[in-house]
Amino acid sequence: MPAKRLFDLLLALPALILLAPVLLVIAVLVRLRLGAPVFFAQTRPGQGGKPFTMVKFRTMVDLRDEKDEPLPDERRLPPFGRWLRATSLDELPELWNVLKGEMSLVGPRPLLMEYLPLYSQEQFRRHEVPPGITGWAQVNGRNALDWEERFAMDLWYVDNRSLWLDLKILWLTLLRGFSGHGVSAAGHATMPKFSGNRKDSGDSDD
């Protein structure tokens, strides 16, 4: 078994067990404040771009306009959901993805499937490693980074990855995880959507 996979299992399994009461409380609060379903599941690209279903706690409410289209993210993200994102508590269910081998504790964040054909060959290298719950970009600006900065940090991690670096990123995640710093780009609920060489617009649910 590769060292990184063993590292993930040795940390993720105890974390899930120890955090079970916290997960239960958050699940109840999400159900009471945001409604059902409690979890947000979405297909994301994993290592090599292979699709998998990522699971998070729900942070948005289902508000729609007269045409039954979802309202902008800013309108659907209530204070409780914003707090879940700011503290990264909405990411805790992804520990299950780590146990299944679909994600790692540390790696480039899994973005949207629709971005795959928009990447340059160099940008696609972020998929050479499993996606992570946290990563080098997340502890160095998170969604406040622009796409160029974010991809540069993802690729730096790919080229310099090690267990020691993973430990450093996890430690920085714990130190900064509850600060809310960088949880959203200016004027967006999260950050602008990546659109390759085209002008960015809308929001990307990270």
Tally of discrete structural domains:
1
So what's the overall shape? globular
The termini sit apart by 30 Å
Helix content: 25-40%
| Biggest sheet overview | 2 strands, antiparallel
In spatial order, strands of the major sheet run 1-2
Question: Average pLDDT value?
Answer: 87
Q: Classify the secondary structure makeup into a structural class.
A: alpha+beta
Put simply, the count of helices is 7
Share of β-strand residues:
5-15%
Assembly of the depicted chains: single chain
Helix and strand string, N-terminal first?
A: HHEEHHHEEHH
Poorly predicted sequence stretches spanning 5 or more consecutive residues: none
Q: Give the total of beta strands.
A: 4
Cα radius of gyration in angstroms: 17 Å
